[in-house]
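Suppose a colleague, Dr. K., hands you the sequence of a protein chain of 226 amino acids and asks what its three-dimensional shape might be. Before reaching for any lab equipment, you can write down a predicted structure in token form. Begin with the sequence itself:
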Amino acid sequence: MANLVLTSRSAPVRGVALPVPRPAPVGVFVGVVGLVFAALLMGGLNVVAAKQMNPLNTTMSDYVFVPGAGWMFPASLLAMCLAGVGVGVGLWARGLLDGVLPKLSLGLALVGLLLAATFETDLGDLSVSMSAQIHRYAAGVVFFCVPITACLIALRLPHRRSLYVGATVASVLLALFLTCHLGPMPDALGELSGLLQRLLFCADLVVLAQLVRVAQRTAPGYALAA
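The predicted structure, expressed as tokens, is then:
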């Protein structure tokens, strides 16, 4: 009698779990490590600089000028970029990154993190140098692309409510943060712009953690119901 070999493309067999592609757990591990370091570095920097900068109305980018601890800011962004790479590897291994749009949005977020970590802002309210402009717009790309990536991935999942909630919260915080710099809103929210930016950063970390969780779960193409 011929032996039957199951692959990820085999017909479903009830009660049989197919092997998960190897890059998926690697991506999950890289994503978790990146998220942990990003949160610890940025959280520690907020604590260290608490007496020097008011977290309610100063941007996180100014932390790069904190003596002896400024390196933690770009290091946190690079760790967040590493988490994004892990997300990409995990989602690709699960077959959830097919198509141009998910790759493009995640890729732009990773490039934005690299640029924001490489180019420093200017100290104070004025951002006039080329480095500061690159940093500002790169950070904006990250804040836009992370929730967009989550929504694009959510479209491919049967249980997607939590991803939509995370993306919605991040988008609302982004809208509030942007209004701090538009029209009459600076007078109303200007003193809270720093807090909104920090909440937005945390929301993006949560969204990336949700995507890591998606990559960690067994995908329909690789697991069969009992």
